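Now for our specimen.

. . .
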Amino acid sequence: MSELPAGRADTPAWHGGSFGAFATCVLAPNAGPMTLDGTNTWILRGSSSGRSVVVDPGPLHAGHLAAVGARAGDIAAVLLTHGHADHAEAARALAEQAGCGVRALDPAHRLGSEGLGGGDVVAIDDLDVRVVATPGHTSDSLSFVLPDRCVLTGDTVLGRGTTVVAHPDGRLGAYLDSLERLRDLAERGEVTRVLPGHGPVLEDAAGVLGEYLAHRGRRLDQVREAVGSGLTTPRSVVERVYADVDPALWPAAELSVAAQLEYLRSGG
């Protein structure tokens, strides 16, 4: 879920494809201001395994489910980075079709008895997917690290622009901690490439995560200044701080500003 515009008009369109040793993206047909080119459904498969893992099946769209099924083949598990409908709506239908479960942090989005949380490892044949807790965009947000140092970030990091901290479920303090957790993985060389939930693959994980943290710091400074001038509501702050952003995106920006105001009130 994007807080800022998708990019300049000359930015190349994103169509998905295969990246690294294990991941293929099938792009869902739900492009829009909040979803960029559409939701990235990621199909993961080990180097010698016929079985696959599907991450974020996306919207309930028959054509998209058919495309995912055709690329995924024998699906062993469906995983969710978080429960927003543009990522999770089709999860149950795909899993029931495949005869497998849906694993997610939030029990409301699971199918079957297996949950999912930070520190877990999803082992499917010769592929191990390591789960990292990355709350902030939502309270149930997770990221998945692959053996080839790719990290699937859902909406925690996007391929273009910056994400919404979806207040009140999303919390800025948790989001900053999650960005730092991912940056630490990148600085240790454990992840080098970001496979986001929307938009193109990012090759410089450490650089991207550093810029995300710097961007949040700049926005917080702007919000502090706006509050210091007497502005108190998310809308009034958005009108000043996000004046250069398409007003169609202001409702999303208001969610992030509400999270920033709460963070500042708590001493952040």
About this structure: The mean pLDDT is 94. The chain has one domain: 17-265. Residues 17-265 form a domain with the Metallo-beta-lactamase; Chain A fold (CATH 3.60.15.10).
